[in-house]
Amino acid sequence: MTSILRTVEFLALSVWLGSDIFLSFVVAPGAFRVLAPNRDQAGAVVGFSLTRMHLGGIALGVVFLLVRLIRTRSFASLVTPAAICVVLMIALTGISQYTVSAKMAVLRVQMGSIQGTAADSPLLAQFSRLHGISVSLESGVLLAGIAAMYLLVRELATAR
Predict the structure, then answer these.
(1) What's the confidence (pLDDT) of residue 1?
(2) Does the pLDDT of residue 160 top 90, yes or no?
(3) 121 DSSP 8-state letter
(4) Burial class (CB in 10 A: 0-12, 13-18, 19+), 2
(5) Residue 37, SS3?
(6) Where are the domains of the chain?
(7) What is the pLDDT confidence band of residue 99, given thresholds at 50, 70 and 90?
(8) Is pTM, for the whole model, over 0.85?
(9) Phi and psi of 121, rounded to 5°?
(10) Helices (H) and strands (E) in the chain, counts
(11) pLDDT at 45
């Protein structure tokens, strides 16, 4: 049973990391390349995908922590470096989804069209600033996830 639970931990983290990498390096650039004449549509595709990835990531993080708790039967396992990285991933994702992305969505509605908004618009400047924060948060999630994966592997190696 321990092997199955450990596999679920690795799977939850791997799926989350994989979705983050796929969205960041395939979906987003692809949407803006394929839908190049209409950046608003490309942004809508990426925004939709990002929301689904965020919700899925938070769910996978919770699964990771619950399975870890079940496997170890100890709350102390939730304060190990790997678990702390996953908690950080959940927190950064929550901030991105419920604060930054929410504010960006309001700005998108106010502008009507990002592509059609004047370059010197304060709304566009605010949107661009929030986009930068969003990218930084996603980078943090990715780095914390890579660290968590390394720490999980190290835990497994030292447990033997």
Answers:
(1) 83
(2) no
(3) -
(4) exposed
(5) coil
(6) 2-159
(7) very high
(8) yes
(9) -70, 135
(10) 6, 0
(11) 95
31-62 burial, b at 16+ Cβ within 10 Å, e below that, comes to bbeebeeeeeebbebbeebbeebbeebbebbe
Under DSSP, is residue 89 helix (H, G, I), strand (E, B) or coil?
helix
Cβ neighbours, 10 Å, residue 78: 16
Give burial (CB, 10 Å; 0-12/13-18/19+) of 27: middle
Amino acid letter, residue 157: A
Instruction: Evaluate whether 23 touches 96 at the Cβ level (below 8 Å).
Output: no
Structure tokens at 22: 């796929």
Could you tell me the two tokens for 72?
Answer: 């170890």
DSSP assignment string, 61-82? HHHHHHHHHHHH--GGGGGSHH
